[in-house]
Write a structure and sequence with these properties.
about 150 residues, alpha+beta, Metallo-beta-lactamase, Chain A, 5 strands, globular
Length: about 150
């Protein structure tokens, strides 16, 4: 994607700065039972997934965090994978799909793009994200941003 096209989507760095200021702190009850998969050996770095002195809430399914911030269940890459839908005041929709798709091409074709946990479930999750009509999609493994014109 050309540099000027990336600016049209406001760029990844500026979106991350905006998120830092838009997301309210979420305080909840003491840590609930965590997803068993997240604690499996070699699944993730435990210190990242379960930081000390932070109250975590396990969210199953879709969940509205705050106005304009919604967690979307997108299993496929892993059983409990989640993406985030952000809607700005101007109604611009950005999806942070994390690892729901490997890259812009796999998001466009609604495929995982890697071996993943369950290809059919992943494809259904990606179709669900497409149905949200995003203006921009950010991916974990691709510095480019998906836009509807692609």
């Amino acid at each position: 994607m050309a540099r000027n096209e990336r600016r049209a989507c406001n760029g990844r760095a500026s979106r991350r700065r905006a998120l830092k200021h838009r997301c309210p702190p979420i305080r909840d009850r003491p840590r609930r039972q965590s997803s068993p998969a997240a604690k499996a050996p070699l699944y993730t770095v435990p210190e990242w997934a379960f930081p000390p002195n932070i109250d975590l809430t396990v969210v199953h399914g879709d969940y509205d965090v705050a106005p304009g911030i919604r967690i979307i269940a997108t299993p496929g890459h892993t059983p409990g994978h989640q993406s985030v839908l952000l809607e700005d005041r101007d109604r611009t929709r950005t999806i942070v799909c994390c690892q729901a798709a490997w890259n812009v091409s796999s998001f466009a074709s609604a495929t995982l793009g890697d071996a993943g946990w369950d290809q059919a479930t992943g494809a259904a999750s990606l179709k669900k994200l497409h149905a949200l009509n995003p203006d921009c999609v950010l991916l974990s493994h691709d510095p480019d941003e998906w836009q509807p014109s692609q």
